[in-house]
Amino acid sequence: MLPSWKPQYSVNHSELDAQHQELFRLALNVYTLSPQRATKENIRGLLKNFYMYMQKHFNEEEAYMKEIGYEGLEEHCAYHADIIESMNGILQQSHSFLQMQASMRKIVRVWLVEHILVHDMQYEAWRKVKRRETAKTKPLLDEEISPL
Ligand SMILES: [Fe+2]
């Protein structure tokens, strides 16, 4: 079973956290879709929704990482590109319901979950370290510009 989003997965950015929660929810839909009650078109539709939402999320996340000057931006964008490419592959090929679901489950587990829980945590950890460093150097800068 898929893990669910927990507060400790927060990247302390309300919009990105909300998007991560939505991605977990969309992933669960694909993960738990029953072959007895759904058609191949149903799963394709869910995959498309998931794919489109993921693209929007990656764009916003990349803009945020750029904004904070994240040093791992390039590597992180490459992870995003890999996930998009894998998803594209599934959507392009005409798999059976079970094949599509199996590939999607793999992507969801290995890519999405691991990506959010490992790689996304890294840019937030980096931001926290930077913030602490900035807080340490700030008083020095204030002293430098003091008229005394
Ligand atoms: Fe990411």
Account of the 3D structure:
- With 148 residues, the protein is mainly α.
- The protein has one domain: Up-down Bundle (Four Helix Bundle (Hemerythrin (Met), subunit A)).
- Helix content is 78%, strand content 0%.
- It contains four helices and no strands.
- Helix 1 packs antiparallel against helix 2, helix 1 packs antiparallel against helix 4 and helix 2 packs parallel to helix 4.
Give the structure's gist in a few sentences.
The chain is an all-alpha fold. 78% of the residues lie in helices and 0% in strands.
Main attributes of the structure:
mainly alpha, binds fe (ii) ion, 148 residues, elongated, Four Helix Bundle (Hemerythrin (Met), subunit A), single chain
Q: Main β-sheet, in a few words?
A: none
Total beta-strand segments: 0
Over the alpha carbons, how many angstroms does the gyration radius reach?
A: 19 Å
CATH homologous superfamily (4th level) name: Hemerythrin-like
- C-alpha geometry: elongated
The fraction of residues assigned to DSSP E strands is under 5%
Helix run count: 4
CATH T-level fold name: Four Helix Bundle (Hemerythrin (Met), subunit A)
Domain count = 1
**What's the CATH architecture?**
Up-down Bundle
Bound ions, cofactors and other small molecules, one mention each: fe (ii) ion
Mean pLDDT: 86
> Which structural category do the helix and sheet elements fall into?
mainly alpha
CATH top level is Mainly Alpha
Percent in helix: over 70%
